[in-house]
Design goal:
It comes from Roseivirga misakiensis. This protein is α/β, with parallel strands linked by helices. Helices cover 37% and strands 13% of the residues. It has eleven helices and nine strands. Strands 1, 2, 3, 4, 5, 6, 7, 8 and 9 form a nine-stranded parallel β-sheet that branches.
Amino acid sequence: MSKFPIIDLHCDLLVYLLMNSNARADSRAFGAGLPFLKEGKVAMQVMAVYTAVEEASARNGLAQSALYKELFSDYSDSFYQATAGFKSRDEGIGIVASLESASGLCNEDEPLDNAFKNLETILENVERLFYISFTHHAENRFGGGNYATAGLKPDGEVLLEYMSGRQIAVDLSHTSDALAHDILDYTVKKSLDVPVLASHSNFRDIWDHPRNLTRENAQEIVDRGGLIGMNFLRAFLDNDRPEALLDHIKYGFELSGGENSMAFGADFFYTGDFPDPSRHPFYFPQHENAAKYQEILAELSNALTDAQKTKLAHQNVEQFIASNWK
């Protein structure tokens, strides 16, 4: 079986390390732990700084950015900083940070200036942010999350303007439909230099879930040269059919120009202490950790050419980086 280098756009290792005192990056308790990354031939992994809408949001965001920095000393034989761009290296895995929810910049009540001070501190720790998601599931001061209805708020407009020209993409994976529409509209109206992507989202035409992209928004991301990272969570694929992941991938390749935007964004996070047992198992066995990428690509052999699988595995992300990182 051919082995493809993998770039994945989203995992939650940092919040796992923050919230579990005995957690380690090389644990097999976590789907994107180092052993699985190596087995799946992952060459680059985006590490999300995740925060909820809560009083401790900014503190948790800063703490995760510090943990990101520590990965290079704690696992110097495994991780290297990929902020200058991805280059295949047999001796390690390139990593780069992202921000999942701008709540990690400031809580709901503090002055907005604090958000930008904290953002600069985070950037000092991580060197580069691949993307910023304005929201998670809930609504916050920047806009509506995917389980909310609010669109882009004034603080979100300011954040978009701050991001313009800073080589940080805006992520639409956790937006409400209204927020996604407003972000896309506002960046055009104000001629902002902000790339767009959906780091870990699937397609609503295949599985009707608010976490998945409408066809309109998916096509707009493709048309702007963005990326769409396929999410492996069962709830966003189809509760009963593991082969639905292949259906989502094939749908993406059928979008006009879609083969140049498709990528992986598996969304591995620690599920061992999740309070809602109805969601277990979170992943089908075929997709349960980062060792599975090569098997997934092999299953696509009848649907995609090797050239298309190369684009999905790593080439599209490399092209995005080449186009947007200076």
